[in-house]
Amino acid sequence: IRCWSNIPFITMPLSRAHGKSFAHRSELKHAKRIVVKLGSAVVTRGDECGLALGRLASIVEQVSMLQNQGREMMIVTSGAVAFGKQRLRHEILLSQSVRQALHSGQSQLKDMAIPVLEARACAAAGQSGLMALYEAMFTQYSICAAQILVTNLDFHDEQKRRNLNGTLHELLRMNIVPIINTNDAVVPPPEPNSDLQGVNVISVKDNDSLAARLAVEMKTDLLIVLSDVEGLFDSPPGSDDAKLIDIFYPGDQQSVTFGTKSRVGMGGMEAKVKAALWALQGGTSVVIANGTHPKISGHVITDIVDGKKVGTFFSEVKPAGPTVEQQGEMARAGGRTLAALQPEQRAEIIYRLADLLTDQREEILLANKKDLEEAENKGRLALPLLKRLTLSTSKLNSLAIGLRQIAASSQDSVGRVIRRTRIAKDLELEQVTVPIGVLLVIFESRPDCLPQVSALAIASGNGLLLKGGKEAAYSNQILHHLTQEALSIHGVKDAVQLVNTREEVEDLCRLDKLIDLIIPRGSSQLVKDIQKAAKGIPVMGHSEGICHVYVDMDASVEKVTRIIRDSKCEYPAACNALETLLIHRDLLRTPLFDQIIDMLRIEQVKIHAGPKFASYLTFSPSEVKSLRTEYSDLECCIEVVDSVQEAVEHIHKYGSSHTDVIITENEKTAEFFLQHVDSACVFWNASTRFSDGYRFGLGAEVGISTSRIHARGPVGIEGLLTTKWLLRGDSHVVSDFSEHGSMKYLHESLPLPQRNTS
């Protein structure tokens, strides 16, 4: 803890040698000294008269938060002219005897002409008020602010430059936020032919160039330029083909068309880019972003510092491969080509991938061994995740078998006619299956997921973006290489892309124009995070796998321990493993109950007692903290219920609608359970572990969905398809079907074409 004027604040270990800008957004969190430039459009109201107080308060809050983390924050602000204009207009109205009109109750304000106000006079009138406002806002966070007014001449005079530099350093040392602005009351015109002549010279003719000059002079790590546009576009924002540029590199100016400048202020986007490139050349990283959007302005500065994909990031380091946006476009184009192939060709690709999994077994296992060694050396994975990370010969053989099942069952998946209707004479309608589009599958510690999901995407004609965990980097790399090798036999290599860039999952979830469906495969926390982060993109999956087994009073002794052991102990880390065991009250203190407890102890399963179960015992196991717990390990909860109805109610209250089982010999009780439990999978006298795409005969699955829209349960090829309508007519128009028209609707159902079941 450091202190200044008895105000404590937390310091962070932020330091780096200045001279080279950050290469990646993820490095911005290490920025120690930051300049935030607030454009006129950010600070002023829409009527250009007065300040946008709400936005300004939010910006001050974010700057204060970063300052109190131990960073050194500086603000280059506009707004003096707008604030002065508001004050002068008010004074002019009052000086024109408005007081008499107000006192007499007459409203003459609308009819009074207000002369055009000179900008320098407005600046002179607004500077003190603007600074007073900043001081009042920063005081709320126990932070002191100081005003510095500069002109271009201050940077050309060596002594003035040294004085300015010393003043700023002293203010930063004292934990004071400098607020810098051009002295618009006396600002002279810029020096002729002095703009951008090298690292040491940039003419200060607006706050963009001032911010850049200041950033380089003060050796800052990051310059954040806030304006009224999202960032830099490849064509003027608002045009049909305009795309936001995520990362801008020196030399890319030729690919950009600049539009007009913002509604207020001195500089447009071209001036911002020039200033940003000049600062970048001087070793300062730059981000240009929107500071006016109501949904993001409240956290835009902190998001940028956190490395999130906001605005345009200026970098001198070009990535070796394509950006994730380019990969998304490649997957879209490749997926459309894939969907246009014959079913036999798509099947041939999957068969080839299955062969490669066994032919290249040694190379795959060697890569997996590297991942396992790194994970064990770093000690960053729990035992259940290490098990998921591990590949073996038997796993690869099972994968290959599953892929061949997918290939065999995919012959008529895309383009299958599921409805035919004769609307009228010579007017026929068909509903056919089509791919969803581009899928984003995010998976943790499960390299076997990659070929499974790839095969399902290929079979369904979808483009695919894969984002695997870094703990499986080597395994994912070779499996993706083999997938692309298989795709290459029909020239659709680009349909499946592996995202290797430093994209955060949250940033991927914002690519709503490139991705049509997100499928998370991993921990419940991963699924929850993705569901929260996804903006306008549907997410297929389940956040938890809280699976129940209910042992009814009429359960078979032989079946009970067998099913429970398999459900809990066969693979406890799986999402379809037993987590809560419900036992009918009449079975307590019976030989069957003792057999269940003995079996769990032999298998070293830790037991947690539900509140009702604990009340029956003198010395009970540890009472469960929550009945909504997914253990993913050799642990489970035991709870007592009085009837099958109570078991159903418990499952609905504490379950996750994943997989639930009843063990009973009473068919009536079983049917009640099957019909009333509202879960994706409900079984009678069978292990929860059967809830799996491969075991269902789907070949594989992209995941298990607990949602009630589109797909539910283990999701195979069918869950990755949607439909479109095809209408074939002969000069048909709706007016022919009006009351006095010549045609009538028939709406006759037509037989479907014979499916290929070979």
From TrEMBL:
Q: Which Gene3D superfamilies match?
A: Acetylglutamate kinase-like, Aldehyde Dehydrogenase, Chain A, domain 1, Aldehyde Dehydrogenase, Chain A, domain 2
Its UniProt entry gives the catalysed reaction(s) as: L-glutamate + ATP = L-glutamyl 5-phosphate + ADP; L-glutamate 5-semialdehyde + phosphate + NADP(+) = L-glutamyl 5-phosphate + NADPH + H(+)
Write down the EC number: 1.2.1.41, 2.7.2.11
Q: What is its main location?
A: mitochondrion
Function, as annotated, reads: Bifunctional enzyme that converts glutamate to glutamate 5-semialdehyde, an intermediate in the biosynthesis of proline, ornithine and arginine.
How is the subunit organization of this protein annotated in UniProt?
Answer: Can form homodimers/multimers.
What's this protein's name? Answer: Delta-1-pyrroline-5-carboxylate synthase
- Underlying gene: Aldh18a1
